[in-house]
Amino acid sequence: MPPLIFLLLVAQMRIGPYLSWDDSTTTTIRINWRTYSADSSVLAYGVDSLTDTLKDNSMTTIHSFRLTGLTPGTSYNYQILCSGYSTPVYTFRTAPEGADSIVFVVYGDTRSDSAAHQMVVNAIMESNPQFVINTGDLVYNGGSLGEWYTFFNVEKELLHEAPLMPCLGNHDYPPDNYFSLFYLPENEEYYSFEYGNVFFVALNTEAWDYSAQRTYLDEKLSEAEQDPSKWLIVYFHRPPYSMGGHGSDLDVRSAFCDVLEQHHVPVVFNGHNHFYQRTEPINGVTYIVSGGGGAPLYQPGSASWIAYGEGCYHYVRIVATATELSMKAIRATDGAVIDSLVIYPTGV
User: Is pTM, for the whole model, over 0.90?
Assistant: First the structure.
């Protein structure tokens, strides 16, 4: 009987569950999934036991529950109950209100090669991140729902416990499926969120006009600077500084880099070029390309302002404490640390 139950679960659950935030990371969470056939759903959750429930009686293949009023810095168990089957009991954790240390992962360009993508995801899971950031080009053709299903099935063991906060890449267009699948803050195209001692801004470099995002970036960073204990991190797909592959995007550089410099953003993460690459600080900002999540690899170029580069499948593990921002680029094939960097607060 247990094997039959498992086969029924596989047949019903098309993708998920996967987690994200569209509001406070300390008191809310989004739990999302899709089913092969229209179904109603019940989500049971709780700290020690599954004491609370949310029910959706509508018959649909698209499911999302938004949990609110959660306790900061707390682990919750949850289980999805559908007609005739249930998922295993999974766990998520809300962000702490104040954190001595947080751990997250940045990776990107996960399109095209599911085997390489799976290898990177398996490696990321060894780092046990509290959440993950994808720098764009999650799939090759954003208009193909089947490619999105493949993406989520590759990442399912990671994303049912670690929320994913992506940004749009050029291959994620047309973006209708992206906006349908993800539940993100604000207008979802570009947004901000806080987790522990870090304030994040995600931008969309596929827009025709960057003026609204430039204003938004300036305003959000100005607000975040009011709390000097917060690290500022910005991420978007096309790199303003990179050598090799597509090189540097000069329009992106013109639109955003002076704003990043004015607000003393210490590090910016990008994708688009399918390799790992880190610049020396450029007017105080370090730019890191993390585009080795599964797409065909490129060879990085060199320049006097390039600190390190390597064409490999990889991810970047970041630990943020009150006194330092520590980053390690980790090769997925063998777990080797290929590059590392520690940034200290201004004046330390």
Answer: yes
CA dihedral over 194, 200, 206, 212, signed as positive or negative: positive
The answer to whether the beta carbons of residues 291 and 300 sit under 8 Å apart is no
Q: What is the pLDDT of residues 118-160, one digit of tens each?
A: 999 999 999 999 999 999 999 999 999 999 999 999 999 999 9
Residue 68 token pair: 């609110």
Question: Mutual orientation of helices 114-126 and 145-159 as an angle, nearest 10°?
Answer: 20
Backbone angles phi, psi at 105, to 5 degrees: -125, 140
pLDDT tens per residue across span 29-57: 999 999 998 888 889 999 999 999 999 88
CA 338 vs CA 153, 254, 315, 329, 330: distances in Å? 28, 30, 10, 6, 6
Instruction: Say whether 180 sits in a helix, a strand or coil.
Output: helix
| Token code pair at residue 149 | 């299903």
CA atoms within 13 A on the CB side of 120: 32
| Low-confidence residues of the chain: pLDDT under 50 | 1-11, 348
174 upstream amide cis, omega within 30 of 0: yes
Write down all domains in the chain, each with its CATH number in brackets. 2-93 (2.60.40.10), 101-343 (3.60.21.10)
7 by Cβ neighbours in 10 Å (0-12 / 13-18 / 19+) ranks as exposed
Report the 10 Å Cβ neighbour count for 225.
13
Strand partners, 54: 43
Residue 336: count of CB within 10 angstroms of its CB? 11
